[in-house]
Design a protein that fits this description.
The complex is a heterodimer of chains A (479) and B (249). Chain A is built from 15 helices and 18 strands. Chain A has 479 residues and is of the alpha/beta class. In chain A, α10 packs antiparallel against α11. Classes of the chains: A alpha/beta (479), B alpha/beta (249).
C-alpha cells in the first residue's frame, strides 16, 4: 500500500473542507505572530467534520500508536516516532506535545493534504490522561502504551482513582486488533489490563542495582486491587513501580514479555541497559544505549522498545534508533551560557521531581553542583504548589551545592528547602523574575563550571527563551 | 521514630499517614517536627494505621485528606474505640490539625451521593455532604487567634457548622466550608478542622506554634512559652502566597 498514491483515498468533501479550514486558521495564527495556537485549528475542524481524526488515522497503513501515562509521554512518543521512521515508516505525530483532543486534531490536520492523504503511513498520538478515553473512541490504535500513573496536578486531573475509573471502560472496549503495551510494574495499570479483550504485552524491570529502600511519600496505589490489603514489593524502582505482590492474596505482578535489567546510569548524560525481549520469536538479551539519563528514562526506553517490537520494527533497527535519540524539548537539555554549562531538567510532579533529584545526587550522595529551582503556578504548572511537600528535598540537605529559588512561587520553594534541612548559608532566594535571577544564579557558578536548572513547565518555556535571546548555545548530547 | 529507651518531649500521631497523605499534607508533619527540633524539643512521630490503637499519650494529632476509597476504609476503622480515644484526648487538651477528608470524618457524618453516609466521630459539631461543584483555588482566611491564614482548597464536599461550632475564621478569598456562609474550618478546644492545603503550617507558622504550644502544655502541664524563631523565610512565603491569592481572585 502506498500512501502517496492520491487515488487511494476516496474524495470526502466534508473532510477536505475541515482540513482547509484548519490549515487556514493555523496560517492565520502564524501570520498574526501568535504562538501557542495549537488547539484553535482542531476546534474549528472538529465543528466541520467530527470524523476528521478517525478518517485520517484509518488511512494510515501501519496503524496508530497511542501513548498515555503521567510521566515520560513526550520523550517516549518521540522515541517511538523515531524508531518507526528508522523502520521505514513515515509517522504522523503530535510532536509538539499538544496532547488534548483538539491539539491532536490540529497536529494531524496540519500534516494531512487537502485530499485527505494523512501525510504518512503510521500514527503516533501522545494522549493527555484526561483526553485518553475520547481519543480511544475516535482512534482505535494498533498499539496502546500505558506507561505509568502517578499523582500529578490534582487541581487539573483529580485523584489517581478518578483517572483509573475513567480509563477503564475505554480500555475494556478495545478488541484483539489492539495490543496494549503496559508497564506491569505499576499495580494500577496491571489491574486495568487484566482480563481485557485486547492483546496485552507486559513490560517491567528485573533490576538488581537501582532499587529504592521504601515507598516515597509521593506514592499512591499502595492497596491491592483484589483484596484491599497493602501491597508489598520484592523490589521497588521508581515511586510505586516495581516487582509488587499482595501479602494476603495471590495477586502479584504478572509475568513479563519484555524485561529491563542491568541498568547503568551515566550521570546526567545517558544510560545503558539490557532489554530481554520475548515479544516476537527473536528472544534474547539486547544491549541498548540512549542519550537520556535516570532510572525513570530506562522505563521510557523499555516501553518504546516494546512498542517497536509490537509494530514489527527489527531489533537492530530499534537499537540504532535509540542510540541516535535526542531528548525532547526542555525535558533535559544542556546549554552553554556565559562560559558555564547549564543542564535544564523539567520538573512537573512529585515522582518526576524525585527522580531528577535522585539523578543529581546518586553519584555523590548529596548535591554538589549549584542548582536553581524555578517554580511557577500557572495553569500548565498546576495552580496548587502543595505538591512540593510530597517531593523528597531532604535528599539535598547533604552536600555543599548552593541552592537558589525563583519563579512566582519561588518563596514557597525556599521555605520548602529550609524545612528539608538545607543549611541557610547554601540557600539563596532570588526574585520572581527570571531575567535577573538567571544572572544572579550564574554568578554563583565559577567560570567554566556547571549548574543545574530545575523549572516547572511555564518556567522552562520562559527560561529557555531568555537563554536563547541572550545567545546561549545548545550543546548536543554525546552519542 | 526515636528509640523507646529515650522518652520523647512531644508525641505526634499521624492518623492513617499511609492512606491519607494527599496534596502534600505531610508538609504539616514536617513543619511541626522541624519547628520543635529547632527549639531543642525532641518530637516523636507515630503513624497510626488501620487496626492500630491510639496511644494514651499523644500530644498532637494530624489527620490529612485521602482518596474516596481510602476514606471509606478509614471511616470504618474510626467508629468505636479509636474515635472515643481521639475524643478523650482532645477533651484532655491534645492538639489536632485535620484537613479535608480528615476534617470531614471528625464531624458527625459525611453524606456522599447515592451511597450510605460515612459516620464520623462527632469531635466537631459539623456535618459534611457531597457537593456538585469542586472548589479549587487559593484561600485567604482571617482569624482572631492566628491572624491571616493562607492555603489552597480542592474539595467538592460541603461542610455545615452546627450550633455549637466555632469556625476557624472568615474566608475572604476562596469558598471555604461550603461556599455559602463565608466560614472556613472549625475549632474546638485545641483541635482544628479545615480545607487548607498548601501545605498549611509551613507558611502559617503562628498556627504551627499554637499547636506545638498546646501539645507541650499537654505533655508537661506547664504554660511555658516557646522560644521565638527567625521566621523570615516563612513570612516571605506567607506574604507572597497572599499576594498570589489576591492576584488570582
Amino acid at each position: 500500500m502506498t500512501t502517496n498514491d492520491r487515488r487511494a483515498f476516496r474524495p470526502d468533501p466534508r473532510l477536505s473542507a475541515a482540513l482547509l479550514l484548519a490549515k487556514g486558521v493555523a496560517r492565520g495564527i502564524q501570520v498574526a505572530g501568535r504562538g501557542g495556537g495549537t488547539s484553535a485549528p482542531g476546534m474549528v475542524a472538529d465543528r466541520v467534520d467530527v470524523g476528521l481524526l478517525t478518517k485520517l488515522t484509518d488511512r494510515l497503513a501501519h496503524g496508530v500508536v497511542t501513548v498515555a501515562g503521567t510521566n515520560g509521554k513526550t520523550t517516549t512518543s518521540r522515541m517511538i516516532a523515531d524508531l518507526l521512521e528508522a523502520g521505514g515508516m513515515k509517522p504522523v505525530h503530535n510532536r509538539s506535545g499538544s496532547n488534548l483532543v483538539r491539539g491532536v486534531i490540529s497536529a494531524f490536520a496540519s500534516q494531512a493534504r487537502l485530499n485527505g492523504d494523512p501525510g504518512g503511513d503510521a500514527g503516533v498520538i501522545e494522549a493527555d490522561e484526561a483526553a485518553l478515553p475520547e481519543l480511544l473512541e475516535r482512534v482505535s490504535p494498533r498499539a496502546l502504551l500505558l506507561n505509568n500513573l502517578f499523582r500529578d496536578q490534582l487541581d487539573r486531573y483529580g485523584e489517581l482513582d478518578t483517572i483509573a475509573r475513567k480509563w477503564r471502560p475505554a480500555i475494556e472496549r478495545l478488541g484483539p486488533e489492539t495490543t496494549i503495551v503496559v508497564n506491569a510494574d505499576d499495580p494500577t495499570l496491571a489491574a486495568l489490563t487484566t482480563g481485557v479483550a485486547a492483546r496485552v504485552v507486559r513490560f517491567g524491570f528485573n533490576e538488581e542495582r537501582h532499587r529504592l529502600e521504601s515507598l516515597s511519600h509521593a506514592s499512591d496505589a499502595a492497596a491491592c486491587r483484589v483484596c484491599g490489603a497493602d501491597l508489598a514489593w520484592h523490589a521497588l524502582y521508581v515511586s510505586h513501580l516495581g516487582d509488587w505482590y499482595c501479602p494476603s492474596c495471590d495477586n502479584r505482578r504478572p509475568d513479563l514479555d519484555a524485561i529491563g535489567l542491568d541498568i547503568q546510569l551515566n550521570g546526567v548524560e545517558s544510560l545503558d541497559m539490557t532489554v530481554r525481549d520475548t515479544i516476537r520469536d527473536t528472544d534474547g538479551d539486547h544491549a541498548i544505549h540512549v542519550g537520556v539519563p535516570g532510572v525513570y528514562n530506562a522505563y521510557n526506553v523499555l516501553a518504546a522498545v516494546a512498542v517497536g517490537r509490537v509494530m514489527d520494527v527489527p531489533m537492530p533497527t530499534i537499537i540504532a534508533s535509540m542510540a541516535a535519540f535526542r531528548s525532547a524539548f526542555g525535558r533535559i537539555e544542556r546549554v552553554t551560557y556565559r562560559d558555564r554549562t547549564l543542564t535544564l531538567a523539567l520538573v512537573k510532579n512529585p515522582v518526576g521531581f524525585n527522580e531528577v533529584l535522585r539523578m543529581l545526587t546518586v553519584a555523590t550522595g548529596g548535591l554538589e553542583v549549584p542548582t536553581l529551582i524555578a517554580i511557577n503556578d500557572l495553569h500548565a504548572d498546576g495552580r496548587d504548589v502543595s505538591w512540593l511537600w510530597d517531593v523528597d528535598f531532604e535528599l539535598l540537605a547533604d552536600g555543599d551545592g548552593k541552592l537558589a529559588t525563583t519563579g512566582i512561587r519561588g518563596a514557597d520553594m525556599a521555605n520548602r528547602l529550609k524545612y528539608a534541612g538545607v543549611a541557610e548559608d547554601r540557600l539563596t532566594p532570588l526574585p520572581e523574575e527570571f531575567e535577573s535571577s538567571l544572572d544572579a544564579f550564574v554568578e554563583q557558578i565559577s567560570a567554566g563550571g556547571s549548574g543545574y536548572i530545575l523549572p516547572t513547565y511555564t518556567a522552562m518555556l520562559r527560561i529557555r527563551k531568555i537563554l536563547a535571546d541572550r545567545g546561549a548555545v545548545e550543546s548536543f548530547w554525546k552519542q | 521514630m526515636t528509640q523507646p529507651s529515650k522518652p520523647c518531649d512531644l508525641k505526634i500521631a499521624w492518623l492513617y499517614g499511609a492512606r491519607m497523605n494527599i496534596y502534600g499534607d505531610r508538609g504539616n508533619i514536617i513543619a511541626l517536627t522541624q519547628r520543635a527540633r529547632w527549639r531543642g524539643i525532641d518530637p516523636e512521630v507515630v503513624e497510626i494505621g488501620i487496626g492500630e490503637p491510639i496511644p494514651d499519650d499523644v500530644d498532637i494529632f494530624f489527620f490529612g485528606g485521602g482518596q474516596d476509597q481510602e476514606q471509606i476504609a478509614v471511616s470504618r476503622d474510626l467508629v468505636g474505640p479509636k474515635g472515643k480515644a481521639i475524643n478523650r484526648a482532645v477533651d484532655n487538651g491534645a492538639a489536632m490539625l485535620s484537613i479535608c477528608g480528615g476534617y470531614q470524618l471528625l464531624g458527625h457524618e459525611y453524606r456522599p451521593y447515592g451511597a450510605e453516609p460515612l459516620p464520623g466521630i462527632g469531635l466537631f459539631d459539623v456535618t459534611s455532604e457531597a457537593g456538585s461543584e469542586r472548589f479549587i483555588g487559593n484561600v485567604l482566611v482571617e482569624s482572631n487567634e492566628w491572624g491571616s491564614l493562607v492555603g489552597f482548597e480542592n474539595h467538592s464536599g460541603l461542610t455545615w457548622l452546627g450550633s455549637a461550632a466555632t469556625p476557624m475564621g472568615k474566608v475572604t478569598i476562596g469558598r471555604g466550608n461550603n461556599g455559602k456562609d463565608g466560614t472556613e474550618g472549625v475549632r474546638f478546644r485545641n483541635a482544628i478542622g479545615c480545607y487548607l492545603h498548601g501545605a498549611l503550617l509551613p507558611k502559617n507558622p503562628k498556627l504551627a506554634d499554637w499547636l506545638i504550644e498546646a501539645g507541650a502544655r499537654r505533655r508537661h502541664g506547664t504554660d511555658a512559652a516557646l522560644d521565638a524563631l527567625s521566621d523570615t523565610t516563612e513570612q516571605i512565603a506567607h506574604r507572597s502566597a497572599i499576594r498570589r491569592a489576591k492576584q488570582m481572585r
